[in-house]
């Protein structure tokens, strides 16, 4: 009946319906594939399994290194950098810090840092991490004070509905 109203014969109408259903199915499959990939830009990023970033070791930052001063005690260095990953039994005056970050489908980012002592006082350090240059500027940026306005209770959905109706609640 619908075919006669639109002016198509039965075979042509069936062909149009088949063509439209193929288009609809292919559009849905394409949208589903786009949703499953999570807008990944490359095929290597596509995975149905979540692969977390893996961090190992102590993260030693340039700011931490900039605060190291010759003559510091082992306790002060441990407080500043954290417990070392390796204290060699044969070289107790050397502490080694190691940090590795493995991100999904990317090479491992490794940083090594060694601290050397003489008579339990910091002698020197070496490694992949250079001290931050303008430490005072970095400290000033960290100590920035931000004023936050006080919270004003505007009520919830229930109070807004009561206001629309014209009912006022008693405040305690």
Any overview of this molecule?
This protein has 172 residues and is of the alpha+beta class. The chain folds into two domains: 2-37; 54-142, Beta-lactamase Inhibitory Protein, Chain:B, domain 1. 37% of the residues lie in helices and 19% in strands. The chain contains six helices and five strands, in the order ααβααββββαα. It has helices spanning 2-6, 10-37, 62-66, 74-81, 135-142, 157-165, and strands at 54-57, 86-87, 94-102, 109-118, 121-127. Strands 1, 2, 3, 4 and 5 form a five-stranded antiparallel beta sheet that branches. Strand 4 and strand 5 (121-127) form a beta hairpin. The longest helix is centred in the N-terminal third of the chain and has 28 residues, at 10-37. The radius of gyration is 33 Å and the shape is flat. The N and C termini lie far apart (69 Å). The mean pLDDT is 81.
